Amino acid sequence: GLGTITIPVVVHVIYNSSDENISDAQINSQIQVLNNDFNASNSDINQVPAEFEGVIANSDIQFTLADVIRKSSTRTSWGTNNDMKHSSEGGSDAIDPSTYLNIWVCNIGGGILGYAQFPGGSPDTDGVVISPQYFGSQGYVQAPFNKGRTATHEVGHWLNLRHIWGDGRCNRDDFVADTPTSDRPNYGCPSYPTAHCRSNDMTMNFMDYVDDACMQMFSEGQKARMRAIFASGGARDSFVQ
Ligand code: ARG
Ligand code: ZN
Ligand code: CA
């Protein structure tokens, strides 16, 4: 096996207000959440119901903060067209996406918490984008998305994970066998059991849409799908020497 996979992270903070120029402490709180969530060492893991306990995964992926780039901007919202990833558009260019996870923290607007690029896309836009009020677990954060799980979810996409409901009806797949089929996202904090498609939804999976306090796990199947992209010939094998 590949053992522990270490991902160096570059955080680009692009701010209009002083609130959006988030503190180093807020950035470090996000790195800590990623390390907890991808190693099943999050303190709320015991909230996973017995039905799904057996497939809780320690993905053995570690994140280290490599650099923080700060840039002030006159722009108050950025949308999702990747302008924040280009200095020619007032943003900040990606640092070597073959060896760094780039995270842009800027106000996306439109009620969007974050978005990600899947493996295999254009290098200059590779990475994830998170609005500052949903990044980290302390500082300028806003409930109910104040526990750093937006980055956990978006980094899941960056590592090739699909939404738990397969973005479709009950017959659409997330290409992971141990996550039950569903036909829709769950929101808020669903009570267990919540069933669609004749099986209980794994609503507490990081790849559903529930509140930060109500998502706690990746599954073994998701772990295998994430780690496969680091194997030789995989889309992110350049991170592993
Ligand atoms: N891309 C999703 C959105 O913007 C992220 C959802 C993350 N969920 C969360 N509980 N933090 O809606
Ligand atoms: Zn998503
Ligand atoms: Ca599945």
* Sheet of most strands: 5 strands, mixed
SS-derived structural category: alpha/beta
Mean pLDDT across residues: 97
* Percent helix: 10-25%
Low-confidence residue ranges: none
What small-molecule ligands were found?
arginine, zinc ion, calcium ion
Instruction: Estimate what percentage of residues fall within beta strands.
Output: 15-25%
Order of strands across the main sheet: 2-1-3-5-4
Overall strand count: 7
Count of helical segments? 4
- End-to-end Cα distance: 13 Å
Computed Rg = 17 Å
Any idea what the shape is?
globular
The secondary-structure element order is EHHEEEEHEEH
Explain briefly what this protein structure is.
This protein is of the alpha/beta class. It is built from 4 helices and 7 strands.
Keywords:
two-stranded antiparallel sheet; 4 helices; binds arginine; globular; 241 residues; alpha/beta; 7 strands; binds zinc ion
Folded structure, characterized:
There is one protein chain. This protein is an alpha/beta fold and 241 residues long. 15% of the residues lie in helices and 16% in strands. The protein is built from 4 helices and 7 strands, in the order βααββββαββα. The protein has helices at residues 24-37, 50-53, 149-158, 220-228; strands at 5-15, 61-72, 101-105, 114-116, 128-130, 195-196, 199-200. A 5-stranded mixed beta sheet has the order 2-1-3-5-4, with helices on one face. The protein is globular and about 50 Å long. 42% of the residues are buried. Residues 173-174, 176, 179, 181 line the site of calcium ion.
